[in-house]
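Usage

Read records sequentially. Each one opens with the input sequence:
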Amino acid sequence: MKSTIIPSLLSATFFLFFHNANSQQIVDIRFNLYADSVKTTIDNYINVEGKLSNGRYIPLTEKEISFSSDYGRWKGNCLLIDKKDNLNAIKITASLKSNPEIQKSTTVYVQKYDDPGYYLTEQDYMNQLRKRQQRSRRL
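and closes with the structure output:
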C-alpha cells in the first residue's frame, strides 16, 4: 500500500508544481529598446518584455504581441523603415494578443545621418583621410 501512495503523491506534487510554473499570466508589458533611435533600411528589432504575475520578466515575440506603428512595416518584432521619407519620430504600439487591453506605446526617433551599414576597415579609413587631405590642400 505504501509503495503506491508515495509515487502517486510525488506525481501529484510534481504535476501541481509544473502546472503552477507554466500558468503564470502576463500582467503587464514594457519596451526594452536596445537603442534610443531606429535606422532606415535595416531591420530594427523592437524588444518587448512581459511581466508575469510572479514578478519575473520574459521576452515576447510576434506570437504573443501585436505590433503597430504610424509608419513602416513589420516583419515579426522588426520594424522596417524606408529611407525615402523624412521622418523625425515613429510611434510604436505593442498589445498583448491574449488580452488587448494590456498595451504600451512609445515614440522612437529616426536617425538622420547616413549610416554606411558597416564599420570602416583600416584601408577605407586611410582612403577617406587621403581624400580629406587632398581637399584641404586645394583650398
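Summary fields computed downstream for this record:
- The longest helix spans residues 2-22.
- The first strand starts at residue 26 and ends at 31.
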